[in-house]
Amino acid sequence: MKKFAISLLFAGTLVFGQEAKMLTLPEAISYALQNKADAEKARLDIRRGEAQIAEVKSSAYPNISFGSNTAYNPLLQESVLPGEIFGAPGQQVKVAFGQKFTSSNMLQLTQVLFNQSVFTGLKAAKTTREFYIINAELTEEQIIERVANAYFQVYQSEQMLANAENNLKITNETGKIIKGLFDAGLARKIDFDRTEVAKNNITSSKQQLENAVEISENALKFMIGMPMQQEIDLPAQTFDPSILPDSDPGSFDERTELRLANKQVELLEWQKKASEAEYYPTVALSANYGFLGQGNKFPWWNGEKNGVFWSDVASIGLNISVPIFNGFATKSRIELNQIEIEKAQADLREAKMGLEMEHKNAVTLLENNMTTINMQLSNVKLAEEVLANTRSNYQYGLATLNEILDAERAVTDAKNNLTRAQLDYKLAEIDLLKSQGKLKTLKEIN
C-alpha cells in the first residue's frame, strides 16, 4: 500500500507539475490537423480512393484461376444400345459409360477485351479520389474554423477575468478611501460595509470567471485533440482588428465547397455513363488448359499401370455478349441518374448564392463591430473619468457611495462590452476569411 501511495503521489506530481505549453493560434491549428479524428478520417478517405482505383483496375487485368474437381461414381449411368453393335442381333444391351473415378484439373485465364463499364469505372474512380482530396481540404478548413473560434473564446474568457480582477482592484482602492474617511470620522460604517459586500460579490464573480476560463481552455484542448491534463497558456495578444472589411468578394469558383459540389456533379455524371455502358456489348477472351484423369482407382497418384488414364485438354474461346432488350431497365436507371445530376446542380446554384450572402454578412458584421469597438473604447475612457471624478466628489461630500458603486459597475460593463465587441469582430474576421476561401492563412498568422 505504501508503494502504491508513493506511485500515485509521484504520478500526481508529474501531472500537476507539468509545464504549461505556450500555444499560438497556428500551433493550435497544426496540432488539431495532426491529432483530430476528423482530419485522420479525411486522410483515410484519400487512401480509400487509391484502393478503389486499384480495385477497378483489377477488372482490366487478366484473371487467372485454377480449379480441381475429383469425383467418385459408385453407380455409373447405363445406356441401352442395339445388340447388332455387339454381335447379338435382335437384342438390347445395357452398357455403362464412364469410370468409377474422374479428376479434372483446369487452369483458366480470362481477359476482358472490351467492357465499357470497366473503362467508365476507371475514370470514375479517379474522380472519386479527387473528391476525397477536396473533401479533406474542406475538412481541414472546418477544423481551422472551429479551432479559431474556440481559441478566441479562450481569449474572451481571459479578458473577462482580467476585467474582473481590475474591477476588484478598483473596488479595493475605493474601500481604502472609504476606510480612511471612516477612521477619520468622515464616513459612515455602513458605507465601508457596503464596499466590503461589493468586493465579496466581485470576488465571487471572479471565481466564476476563472471556472469559465478553465472550461473554455478544456473546450479548446478537446477541439484540437490535446490531452486534458496538458496545461496551456496563450501568448499576450490583444483583440485588435487584423483584417479590414473588403467589399470585393472576388471569385467564388475556387471555394472548396464549390469545388466539392462540382466534383459531386462530375461523379453523378460518371454514374450516368456507367448506366449508359450497359448498352454496349462486352468482349472477353478465355483460355483453359488442364488434365483429365479417369479410372477405377483414385486418380491422383495412379497411372496407366493401375488402370487410370490421364489426358490433357485445352480450349480457347471468344465470348461476346450483346444486350438487346432488358425491359427498359437501363433507360430507367439513366433517367434516375439524370434526376440526381439536376438535383446536384440545383444545390450548386444554391451554394453559390449562400457564399455571396456569407461574404456580404461578414463585411457588414465587421463594419458594425468596428463601430461598436470604437464606441466601447470611448465608453471605457469616459466611465473611468466618471469614476475618478465621483471618487473625488465623494471625499468632499459631493457624491454618495451609491454613485461610486454605480460608476465602478459602469467601468466593468464598458470593459466587458468592449471585450464582447472585440470577440465578435474576431469571429467576423473568421467568417470573412471563410467566405473568401482564405481560412488557411490563419495557420501562418504570428
From TrEMBL:
It is found in: Cell outer membrane. Keywords: Cell outer membrane, Membrane, Transmembrane, Transmembrane beta strand, Transport. It comes from the Bacteria. The keyword Cell membrane does not apply. It comes from Kaistella pullorum. Belongs to the outer membrane factor (OMF) (TC 1.B.17) family. The keyword Cytoplasm does not apply. This is TolC family protein. Pfam families: OEP. InterPro entries: OMP_efflux, TolC-like.
